[in-house]
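#lab-general

N.A. 3:47 PM
ok so I finally got the sequence cleaned up, no stray characters, all 278 residues accounted for. can someone with queue access submit it? mine expired

B.Y. 3:52 PM
send it over

N.A. 3:53 PM
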Amino acid sequence: MFKSLKRGCPRCLPPHPDWAKTGYKMTSWTLQEFKGYSAKQLPNANAYLKSFKQIRPLRYGMLTRCKKCHEQWYRHQDGINIEWVSPDRQDILGAWDQVPQAISDEHLQVLLKIRSAYREPIICPCVAEINGKVIDRCCVQFQNSPPLSTTVGRTHLFSEVNRLGLSKKAAPASLRLAWWSAHDVAHGTPAAMVEDSSGQVRSVHARPLFVVNSEDSRKQFKASKQPFEWAIPVVGLVPADEITWIIADKPLHYGPLILEGVPERQAAAVSRVGTGQI
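B.Y. 4:20 PM
back already:
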């Protein structure tokens, strides 16, 4: 990648030929040389970094600016991942940086009753009171970085949360775990196959966080090895863009927030399956 790059960021460089017709430009990328690649293997990587000027350090990571087009970019604390800061996300980045988004012990006790079926990122579906308004279908997502994705609509910081509660519309823990297990069996088929407590095999077409049918929130699920078929009934899920996302700082000791049975290797698998979130 770096051999073909000249000075400038992906926002001001000509788009890739495959994206020219759509006008799409990259909003994030990874600097692999920080994972052990030598300067000889990526000769232009360090020179490419000189295209960015550091603006200021943040609570986690660094805010930088392209010297050519002056677009802002956030460099993660790991020094590897870089994300574009769109104009409509600059305010929330500033608010995230000014106030720690740590959760209280009271809120933690609620989330420990829910827990996450995902290791990276940790996501707990719940109901929340935000700035005095009760909102169902919320997800607390733990991450040590600001919410910069432009693909998800409603986003709040944990400092805005008054209280948390259990949601009757949340996907049960058994369904969230079964989805991951079924994906491991399916190896990238269009959907994961699960079996509910009545013995019916159904398909799940996205990561389950909230279910449309309240009856499904009370059922138990397990992964099914049955091959995928389009004719099999689906588990109705609430789309990600209809969920309110709450960004919280990742606790130092986050292990208890993860459901038992979640594989250690899941962090690597997430890049294959995709988070589709913040």
